[in-house]
Amino acid sequence: MKQIVSKEAFNEGLAKLLTEYDIYGPVRHPYRGTHSDTDKIQYQQVHSFDEMEWDEKSQFSPKSAVLPINQLLFYFVEDQWLEASETMRKILVFLRPCDLHGMKRMDEIYLNNGAPDYFYERRRKMIKFVVVGCKETYRNCFCVSMGSNVPEDYDAALNIRDDHFELDIIDEDLAVFAGREADFDIDYVTENTFSIEVPEEVDSQYLAEHDMWREFDSRCIACGRCNYVCPTCTCFDMQDIYYKENEDAGERRRVWGACMVDRYTDIAGGITFRSKYGSRMRFKAMHKIYDFRKRFGYNMCVGCGRCDDACPQYISFSETIEKVGAVMKQKLNEEDPA
Amino acid sequence: MKQIVSKEAFNEGLAKLLTEYDIYGPVRHPYRGTHSDTDKIQYQQVHSFDEMEWDEKSQFSPKSAVLPINQLLFYFVEDQWLEASETMRKILVFLRPCDLHGMKRMDEIYLNNGAPDYFYERRRKMIKFVVVGCKETYRNCFCVSMGSNVPEDYDAALNIRDDHFELDIIDEDLAVFAGREADFDIDYVTENTFSIEVPEEVDSQYLAEHDMWREFDSRCIACGRCNYVCPTCTCFDMQDIYYKENEDAGERRRVWGACMVDRYTDIAGGITFRSKYGSRMRFKAMHKIYDFRKRFGYNMCVGCGRCDDACPQYISFSETIEKVGAVMKQKLNEEDPA
Amino acid sequence: MTNEYIPQAAVIREIIPHTEREWTFRVETDGTNTKPGQFYEISIPRYGESPISVSGYADDFVDFTIRNVGRVTNYLFDLKPGDKLALRGPYGNGFDIEEFKNKEVIIVAGGTALSPVRGVIEYAYYHPEEFKGFSVICGFKSPAEVLFRDDIERWKERLNVIQCVDGAPEGYTGPVGMVTAFIPDIEIKDAENLQAIVAGPPVMIKFSTLELQKRGIIDHNLWVSYERRMHCGLGKCGHCKMDDTYICLDGPVFRFTDARKLFD
Amino acid sequence: MTNEYIPQAAVIREIIPHTEREWTFRVETDGTNTKPGQFYEISIPRYGESPISVSGYADDFVDFTIRNVGRVTNYLFDLKPGDKLALRGPYGNGFDIEEFKNKEVIIVAGGTALSPVRGVIEYAYYHPEEFKGFSVICGFKSPAEVLFRDDIERWKERLNVIQCVDGAPEGYTGPVGMVTAFIPDIEIKDAENLQAIVAGPPVMIKFSTLELQKRGIIDHNLWVSYERRMHCGLGKCGHCKMDDTYICLDGPVFRFTDARKLFD
Amino acid sequence: MLRDVNTRKVMKNAFRITKHKYKTALRVRVPGGLGDPLVFRTVADIAEKFGDGRIHITTRQGFEILGIDMEDMPEVNEAIQPVIDHLDTNQEKRKAGYPASGTRNVAGCIGNKICPKAQYNTTEFAKEIEDMIFPNDLHVKIALTGCPNDCIKSVMHDFGIIGMCLPEYDQSRCVACQACVNKCKSYSVGALSIENNKIVRNHEKCIGCGECVLNCPMLAWTRSPKKYFRLVIMGRTGKKNPRIAKTWLKWVDKPAIMKIIANTYEYTAEYIDPEAPNGKEHIGYIVDRTGFEEFKKWALKDVELPERCEVVPTVYWDERKIW
Amino acid sequence: MLRDVNTRKVMKNAFRITKHKYKTALRVRVPGGLGDPLVFRTVADIAEKFGDGRIHITTRQGFEILGIDMEDMPEVNEAIQPVIDHLDTNQEKRKAGYPASGTRNVAGCIGNKICPKAQYNTTEFAKEIEDMIFPNDLHVKIALTGCPNDCIKSVMHDFGIIGMCLPEYDQSRCVACQACVNKCKSYSVGALSIENNKIVRNHEKCIGCGECVLNCPMLAWTRSPKKYFRLVIMGRTGKKNPRIAKTWLKWVDKPAIMKIIANTYEYTAEYIDPEAPNGKEHIGYIVDRTGFEEFKKWALKDVELPERCEVVPTVYWDERKIW
Question: Which residues of B touch F179 (CB under 8 A)?
Fold first, then answer.
């Protein structure tokens, strides 16, 4: 159902939904950025549309709404284990088309790679997505190249207009907005400031031995920002915590993990795989544009460009993809100079 | 006897004189100035004309040739006193017209103020003066205003020309130079960059109470440079020195004194006269343009301007004279408004 | 929907020390669905979970042979029989004994990596007639670090077992040298059909497989068992992925035809 | 050409202490050419020379009354009779007794400045008949600092002597107050011809002359004795100059008509 | 030609008495160090027209335009007016140049205009101080630095104002990557540790450098929006006894600092040695003379310290000689 | 639009990584702090054309031209070429900007170009050092100051080169006015006293400030024409342990200092921690690690110290924390 909704009516509709739904959207926190007198934009619960920041790209993706940064799994008390509870409320997440594409990839890992993940599935079932149409690309976006520019499979979608919204409601549960019917398409970006070609043919073993990654050994600082801001990075670490007051009681959590960060591959006995940062870059890049696709049929990366936005070392992931493409092209040329 | 003498002949003449004479002239000492990488120009013994510096005004006057800075008067051994000796050689001092005028003032104090000074007279008798003509005024000179621009009473005089000298020999003892006779006048400056009017009428008591001096209380730092560089300052201090090796033996010296410097007026019991620096300025100024004249009939100051050159506080003595004049003029106007 | 993340408490029946630092914990749990080469996630307080290979099993117990490598495993070495361990599993594919039956078999194992293959060796010990030959080369850093000492002596009765050490004090009489040094000496009848297993640290795997290939073993018949950071054991956490392979789901045992495509 | 700078050694005949700090040194030298108010340059080792007023004299000695003001004069106070002092002089004009004869005379003196006028007073003591009146006001800081105690008592026999102190402990019975306070009390017969002498520190001179002027003394008959830094004593070194006057040559004794033009 | 010159007036007017008599140099003050093309071009023009073409960049973020004839000082004062106007420098009389030079240019590191490490805008704060204290003849040196790296060397100043980041921790965003712990240890004072997979911060040890915030990839550490500062005092260079300033106030705020500085001027005016050479006595020596307690009494008068502020009761300086 | 940027290359090229992504700032180095109208105008032009108009004057006598788009870096490098040429700054490739930024601008106080107190021309000496050590990535800070007043704060540098005046006394010109004694006592260390109406100088105490020469009205005290320096080492600011440099060599000369600096670069290259963040380890921390003895061994290699030179055998720094 497509309708035009005034600002007031839209907020009234949200107010209605709030009785049943926790709503998540991007929120600007002034002065809370990495650098002094800069802001942070992260996803979190909101209570009205005005709380949300859509002018600037959020530094973090909406994945925290689906996969909590710190997720309590269970408590342990002596030798009993008690499962942690999940919200009983429904969840509505406002997000951009690319991020919605990211959700599909997260589902793939958590629901289709081996058995469905108990905790993920439990929360995921409560979630609906409202796509916010994109009229203009941000710097570093390459969603068009990744084919994740077009909104798909949303529960609702909206275009933000000067004094009203264009609202396309698919899930009837969300049809609580007073407006008039209209026809429109949900905005999406058809051209980014640049486009890249993702190589079809990726010889990961050839690449693993290629020295293209060595530049990152020194450029990358392994901070993990590219992982943490990525809407498709799904790794986690598990943590056990024993309460200081009683060490026989505690809890196990899972928290976002990052393949770029130290200790990711550590195993007992002091062995670490991929201690070179360039190798971690390769591991991540391969996951985003090769092995995930090999396993699930499409690229993991959605081209939101947040990794580029966030990298303090100005490593561009989109350029890294291009470099991989160039290496592969060169290899093909060498093998078949014709 | 006026003659033109080549450089070579002039130096040959000097060489002849050196057998009998100690020759004094201004000498430049590179890097020995007050500030780093600046020079010092002082009077001292020389052995050729080239050692002398005439392009720039010497910072110190030639008076050190006549009145040694440190003059040993006598030795004492237990309760006997042994007079210090004086040079047996004759002395020739090259100097500018203004400085020669200064010598006249020094003679006045040392020979005519009370009985002739024993030590001064003893040395003075050995000295002859060679005036070096002045073609151009230096900054701060006001010899014309002081009437000390015209060379007078010299034993010889010379003009420095590009490749020769014009030499006017009065004292026949000095007539040792090979040259040809010629007619010329010894150069002298007829106009300085400024001229001042020295007040005829000076009411020193009125001035003593005038607050014109108070500005110098804070401006002057009582360093005494104006005294030490002055060709007419004649004051001295006496110093006793007991030898460290035998305190029953020692010597008495006199050294240049300075009315601007602390301790000049100190008497036993902690009493100091003129502790304010402005009062010292007044004392000095009155001496230079009033009380010396009152005693001897002409001004003491010769307008060489070295006090201005030397003053780190940029106090101008010529302007001070003008200020005195202005105060006196104002006083006369007040007394007789017509 | 079962919650696979929640571990079970299991009582320690017996603790069998091999060396000062390497002990086998025999834990009372149903081992019927367990295969050699599989692993369990064992909870270690203050550290979290650690993937530990099964080094033996029966209907009512599973053995975990653990090296005390410090901080992480220290806790375990304070436990006594009767205490409980929290564990979940088994995970991974493990070795399929059927693949090896009626064939010549060579097993090359280094250090604690003897654990994942111990089940295979035990099977061969008890059923030597089911194999056309069964050689074991197991290497340890030094004589003091030899694991499963009694087992090895016992295995020697029926199998061709070379137990070597990388280095030894003077006067030591056993074989000294890297495991790779002993591969050329193994008597091989039918290299093309011979099944070989390599288990150990990465470098050992690399050179042992090379050496075995030199002996004519074909990659398809060459098996390796990978040690990686199997963290969730469920194909979610990402830590154990190599290329498109999740070791916890698709491994840790691979034919070398597959394994050679795996790299870090 | 005589060298006036060279001092002569003179033996100390007697040392007469007045107070703890003020002693008179009686030195064996020809005093015939000396006048009251003149000074000698006395050499003080490690300091140089100091101009010291003559406080008394005779044909064969000169007295110097000196206050021990510390560093400078300390040395002198270690001397004993028979030791030698180096001195040259006398310098300065001094008082001309003729000016005062047959006139009323008032002398106002403060502290050690009693020295330069002591010769005048002594003359009056021995020849009181040559004056129409002779008053002395001599002031000291405190009773302990009174100089020439015996002299004063002696003078009182024949002259009008007021010896006052600026301040005194309780119980002191003598006159207390500044010298200026006693000037109004002096009996004056013929102010216009009266000769007055003031000797002392600058402030005392200033107020005493004022007070004497109030009594009708004319400046021409008012004499002051200046303390300045007479350093060479010969009109060369410059230190003692005031206006165009060299105190060492033209003073230290001046008619007030001249002295009032002198200032610092 | 100029003869008599009141050197004090010259110096007060921000011209220098140089080693070359009758040659001066104009000291141009750039508060907090932030200039722009107009300032640069005006300075260049003056150097060309009145100076000998040399412009020295001072260590206090000013310029000295060298080789000016003292005769030209009034014209130079006119010529520098655009800079004074443009930088909004306090002035007593237009076209009369700078009215005082005792208190030195308030210096600032580049601050958070662009520097990633800085906690505040040093230039703006410098300007506020400048507005309050200039013109002033008292010899006080103030420097502002964005973070304890202290590029401006505030620890050699009478007042060093060092930006502090009060880090606030959102445990729910922390993934225990330990970047903060590692960076705090390697770059800073090691005030962070990890316990039970969460970070524990030792507030006493923390110097507010902000490395935790800067390096937190999750922005679990963020900066309190309230600006805090460390005030270090009475550092100095110099012949006699150069010394590093010591911390007096930690977690102090801007209003308190402003008031303390204002108070210090009153204290200095009261206690300055009237016999001091050129009437200049450096504040640090005055504090040495009156004792810290007296300084403190004056400086803290009517100052409201923020609740979080920590006060070192008595400041001691190290004065082992370097010479 | 620029995406991938090698930040190390950017930094090595003297552009800054700012807090604003893709915005940079050019650091213009002015050795010894001496600029002129061409430098100032070029900087102004760049600020106007490529920057946002803001120019920060750094504490090390450079300029930072703010708000430059990283895209424009090549053009800015071309535009700054006149400054590089004009200041004769070492460069590897024309129009490629600055080739390194590890070693910081060699800073100098105004020196004896005009300052009455300075003992030498800091700018010229700075330029000689610059010529020798640039371009260089090693993190070394050098400052030259004309006299121990140390306006440049050389005591916060790795190498502080402090001008020393070796005063020479002409007894025959001394009138015992005691200006030197008084000034040495009130302004400096009190190394002079008067005995028997002549001045006695305590050479051990003397810091070579030159106050005796400056204040001698008779020029009885003059300066030895040979230039001497005090070399103080390993001072630093910073988060961890700011400390004042300590004297290592007293009465050392320029050739020895040049050689010592050159040697120090070899030492640093040998001992720098290969794991140091960004390959930058500040020389002071390296000395802390290797010990002073090892540093000394390298630094003094083939150095000819002047006869008069006094060497402190082992340098100890005070590191009581200021934080």
Answer: 223-224, 261
